[in-house]
Amino acid sequence: MNLRLHNLRRALSKMNCDALAISNLTNVRYLCGYTGTSGLVLVSATEAFFITDFRYQSQAAQQVSSEYSIVIAEKGLWREAAQLAKKRRWKALGFEADHLTVGAWQDLQKELNPVETSPARAIIETLRLQKDADEIVIMRRAVEVIDE
User: 3-class DSSP state for residue 6?
Assistant: First the structure.
């Protein structure tokens, strides 16, 4: 299993929610490798989804890590996330509080009803502080290039 996904699931187990929605594109890229401009990651203890719209279907298929099920949203990323949450009977869905507007959060609450929302702060950013082996190799190579 992907170490980043594993670490997120460990952090998720300490939160009061069944799953976490990641909408910040830098954090999305960190978790699943997607570099496009429309995407949302939804992670529970047992499942991981990458949600995008039809325009990015082929890019997602090429870039998104195989641990993620790719879902093509027909009526918006958050609406699709809400449908997945309801279908799985999750009681609470965490979201990146620092990356969601109040208006989007209010819309999300309406879509999720009766699923509760649970704000999470700096979950992915905290995970990103610890560098994995691939990141260390890249950083060492960058130092070598600068030294040359």
Answer: helix
